[in-house]
Amino acid sequence: MNYYVIIPAHNEAAYISSMLDSLTSQSLRPKKIVVVNDNSTDATKEIIEKYSSKDPIIQVLNISSSAEHIPGSKVIEAFNKGLELVDDHYDFIVKLDADVILPKDYFEHIALAFEKNSKTGIAGGFIYEQNDGKEWQLNHPMDKDHVRGAFKAYTKACFKAIGGLKCAMGWDTVDELLARYHGFNTRTDTRLKVKHLRPTGKAYNKKAKGLQGRAMYTMRYGFWISLIASIKMALMQGKWVSLQDNMDGFFSAKKNKAPFLVSKQEGAFIRRLRWSNMRKKMIP
Asked: Comparing 110 with 207, which gets the higher pLDDT?
C-alpha cells in the first residue's frame, strides 16, 4: 500500500533525527514524507534539510506561525499546510509527531490492518514513555481502542469522509467519533510499541487551561457527558482542579457561542455513542 506521512515540527532538534531514522528504515517505506518546520528556533531546519538532501522521499516545508504551543490548532495548521503538498494517490495518510521512535515493521502492520478490513478507517499502536528508572512503560490513559494523536493513520476513504482533521483542541477525539458516524472503526495493535521521547503534555502552554472543556462543548457533548468525562479525567490525573478548569472552559464556550466542530446530526450520534459506552462500562 502507498502512504504519505506528514510531520509537524517545532523545535524538535533533540528528537527528529531518531524519528526520521526509524521512519526511513521502515520495512514498508512511505511514498512521501513532508516535514513541516513550523517557526523552529533551534537546529530543526538544518537537520531535516540534511535528511531531505539524502533521501528524495523527504520534503521540507518551512512556515512561520506563532511560537506558542497551544494544543490542537498549531499542530493541525502545520499538518494542513503539509497536506497541500501531497497528491491523492495514496491508500492511507499519517499524521506523525517528530518526537517518536517507531518499530521497524510499524507501517507494515498498519497496512495489513487496513487491507484485512475495509471498515477500519484509523489505526495505530501504543505509546511507551520512560519512567524515572529509565524503563519504557505504557502510557495510554484513554480507551484501549483510541489511537493517540502522535501517530494516527487514516485510510483515504475515512480521511475524506470525516473532512480531514479539525483545527482545534479535541481533533484527535472528534476524528474517531466522526469515523464511527461514517461507518468506520479504529484499530489498535498492542504489538506496535512506539517510544515517545518527550513526555505527554510537556510542551503545552498554561493558556491551554480550559480548552478541554471548550472541546467538549464544540463536540456537542452537552452538560452531563462533559461533567462525567471531566470527573473521570480529574480522577485519572489526580488533579481535581482540572474538573473546574474543564467546566469553566465548557461554560465559557457556551456563553461566547463558540462554533461547533460537528453538525447537529453528528452531535446527536456522538451523544448516543458516549452514553452507550458509559452504560457498557457500568454493567459488568
From this structure: 110
**Top-confidence residue, 119 or 281:** 119
Residue 164 has pLDDT above 70, yes or no: yes
pLDDT value of position 209: 72
The answer to whether 47 and 19 are in contact (CB under 8 A) is: no
The CATH number of the structural domain formed by 3-196 is: 3.90.550.10
Residue showing cell 477525539: 173
Q: Are 47 and 21 in contact (CB under 8 A)?
A: no
Angstrom distance (rounded) from CA 209 to CA 177: 23
Beta bridge partners of 194: 127
pLDDT confidence band for 234 (50 / 70 / 90):
confident
| Contact call for residues 247 and 227 (beta carbons, < 8 A) | yes
Instruction: Kindly give, in sequence order, each residue whose CB lies less than 8 Å from that of residue 155, ignoring residues fewer than 6 positions away.
Output: 91, 92, 114, 120, 121, 122, 184
What's residue 66's pLDDT?
61
Output the average pLDDT for the chain. Answer: 90
Helix (H, G, I), strand (E, B) or coil at 227: helix
Q: Alpha carbon 153 to chain centroid distance?
A: 9
C-alpha cell at 15: 528528537
What distances in angstroms separate CA 144 from CA 45, 187, 190, one per listed residue? 35, 9, 9
Is residue 275 classed exposed, middle or buried when 0-12, 13-18 and 19+ CB atoms within 10 A define those classes?
A: middle
Sorted by where each begins, the domain ranges of the chain are: 3-196, 209-282
